[in-house]
Amino acid sequence: MTSWPWLAAAFALLVLGLGPAAAGVATGPPRRRVTAQNTATLVVCLAFLLLAQGYGRPSYVDLALVLAVLGPAGTLVYARLLAADLERDPPKVRGAALASAVLTVVVVVPLCVASGPGRAMGKLLVIGALLIAGNVIASVALGGGEPEEAERG
After folding, report:
1. What distance in Å separates the CA atoms of residue 150 and residue 46, rounded to the nearest whole number?
2. For residue 150, is it within any domain?
3. Domain range holding 43?
4. Burial of 125 (0-12, 13-18, 19+ CB in 10 A)
5. Which of 21, 81, 106, 138 can pair with 39 through a Cys bridge, CB separation 3.0 to 4.6 Å?
6. ∠ CA(41), CA(106), CA(63), 5° rounding?
């Protein structure tokens, strides 16, 4: 049994999020490509969660869990490989980290309410925490780490 509101939300997320992210991955300087890759991973992971609820397929949640673990790790690998380019022209990632955290909460909280208490809610909360933590860690790595005290002012 499908649930159209969840599927519509997944479709909107994929169209409005994955399209621009794919364009960012395909064009532009390395700083934009790496940030867009991280965003694309987040969008696909959240879309898997919405599709799992819409189609009633818990296996999609497992795919989201794997992607939530591997996505930020992939971003860290790219950050390491492109360290010289990113050091010369670091990405502006503070706003992206905040936006990814807000988007994660906006998607995961309604899914938790819909699933009710139990194992499914626990998985959703773990995935949400992994997505937020992974995006914060990746953003710090892409931004070159936290600024030193002397640089702050």
Report:
1. 39
2. no
3. 4-145
4. middle
5. 21
6. 35
- For 18-39, give one letter per residue: b (16+ CB within 10 A) or e: beebeebbeeeebbbbbbbbbb
Side chain identity, residue 100: S
- How many domains does the chain contain in total? 1
Q: Token pair for residue 34? A: 């790496």
Is 151 among the domain residues?
Answer: no
152 inside domain: no
Using an 8 Å Cβ cutoff, are 37 and 25 in contact?
yes
Closest CA to 137 of 96, 90, 105: 96
Q: What is the pLDDT along the chain (153 residues), one digit of tens a residue?
A: 568 999 999 999 999 999 998 998 898 888 888 888 888 999 999 999 999 999 998 889 999 999 999 988 888 888 888 888 777 877 777 777 888 899 999 999 999 999 889 999 999 999 999 999 988 888 877 776 554 443 444
Question: Is residue 24 domain-resident?
Answer: yes
Give the predicted TM-score (pTM) of the model.
Answer: 0.86
